[in-house]
Every structure is written in structure tokens, then in C-alpha cells.
Amino acid sequence: MRTAFDAAGPWNFSANNGEDKDDEAGSHRYRAIFISDLHLGTPGCQAEALLDFLRTHPSDTLYLVGDIVDGWQLRRRWFWPQSHNDVVQKLLRRARKGDRVIFVPGNHDEFARGFVGHHFGGVEVVEDAVHRTADGRALWVTHGDYFDGVIQCAKWLAYLGDNLYEFTLKLNRHLNSLRARLGLPYWSLSAYLKHKVKKALAYVTDFEEAVAAEARRRGHQGVVCGHIHRAEMREINGTLYCNDGDWVESRTALVEHYDGRLELLQWEGSAHPAARGQQAMPAAPTVVARAWGAA
Predict the structure, then answer these.
(1) How many angstroms separate the CA atoms of 251 and 244, rounded?
(2) Nearest-angstrom CA–CA distance, 270 and 282
(3) Residue 271 — pLDDT band, cuts 50, 70, 90?
(4) Binning pLDDT at 50, 70 and 90, where does residue 149 land?
(5) I want to staple 108 with a disulfide (CB 3.0 to 4.6 A). Which of 67, 171, 174, 256 is the partner?
(6) In 10 A of CB 176, how many CB atoms?
(7) Does domain 30-291 match CATH 3.60.150.10?
(8) Rounded to an integer, what distance in angstroms lies between the CA atom of residue 78 and that of residue 43?
């Protein structure tokens, strides 16, 4: 996640090495923010980090691009700490304050698809959406599970894979607890396995190309999705593919500035812990990818 993406085509991608940060790091307002795969209701959800990000990154529109609540795991066993409730309250509070909050359900919160067209606490529930950027580009917003052959053709295998993923995350938490005591940085076991297994890489590539092709078929210039927990921004046959990642491992979000510029951010959290009686110093997120429209 820390490696920047290479320049590609007319979208003019560029890496960011820390320069060109906003003057008020951590408190910049965006035209739109896209987040997905929070998986509230599981121990892997990094709710505290998400709360930090939401508190310091207001936006006119907030897209919740699926798998916000993990109904699959909650059916197996109930897990709902206060921090997860705080995230829900924060989302509802943003809607009450006038921000537009749009929820596109995914496969893990597919129960919400029965409420498409309704509003709950100011949150709009939609099957999918089209976001128009400030410079006029149309981005199709969809969770992406409809393009996952495992989900569509062998749901039992998807459930099995989900349980194995949860086991990997549990193992990963113990491993990183040990690494922290040794003074070593966070390391993602599941991300490592995904990058090493050729079939997993082929699955990701097929998914990305299928989603981009459907956006192109619908006449849109790009697509924003989630589902595969792999943050990415690249051009695929002339279509901008954006995956906003997840808040289980990568802690990433896609944002749009008021000039239409799109960035993929990774959130690290507060730069310095708060001293007694003082407020914590907010940190600027790491920009891992950036794109503009065609000239």
C-alpha cells in the first residue's frame, strides 16, 4: 500500500512523497469521500482509526461503498463494541449536519438491499450510484460483488473463504502484537498471501477488468468499488478504475477535491499523542495514488 503508482495514460497518475500537502493537514474538507469494507461487527474492523479519519476529514458527500456492517459474521456470533456503535453514530451525525451520505450495500450487508430507495437517519440506500466529479466525469459507484464469480456461483465457497480470512486476520493480530513488542512495523499476512498466490492475483485482475468494462459499457468514464480489499487506482482500457480499499487492514479512502482531483489516501492516525490537557496533533494521510481527468 505504501508504493505509489506509476504514471498511466491521460489520467496523469503521479506518486506523492510527502510534498504538496494541504496547509491544514488532517482537517481538509473534500467534495466527496468514498469508503468501503468497514466490516463493523468483526474484531478486524479498525473502528478507532476510522473514527479519527472521519473526525478530521469532512466532506460534502460521503459514499459508503458496501460491506459497512458484516452481517455474515454477526450471524455466526455477536460482536459489537462501543467503538463500532460510535462509527454508526458518526455517520448518522454527518447526515444530520447536512452532509449527503449515500449507502451502496455489499454482499456482507446484503440485508440492506431490501431497503433500496429508503432513507434511514438521512442516509440514502441505493443499489448503485453515479458520482459526477467537479470537472464533469461520471464515476459509477458499486460495491463490486456482482462481478465476483465465487459470490455469484458458489456462495458456500465464499462463506468458507470469509471464515478463512477471519482466521488469517486473527493470526495476523497476534503476529503484529509480537512485532510491536519487538519494535517492528505493522505487516499484513493476508496481503502477503494475496500477492504471492498466482490464482489470487489472477482473480483480482479479472475482477478489476470486469468492473471497468461494465462501467465503460454504461457510458461512464470511471468506476469506484470495494469488495476485494485491495486499494487501487489505475486506467484500464481508457476507464479509470478506483478501489477505495478497506478499514480492516489498509485503512484507505478515495477522496475528491473541489477541482475534481482524485486521490487515494492511507490513514496513519494522529502524528503525536495528546499531552495532558492538550489536543492530539492531527496527521496528514499518505497519498498513495492521484489522478486528474484527461486534458
Answers:
(1) 9
(2) 5
(3) very low
(4) low
(5) 67
(6) 16
(7) no
(8) 10
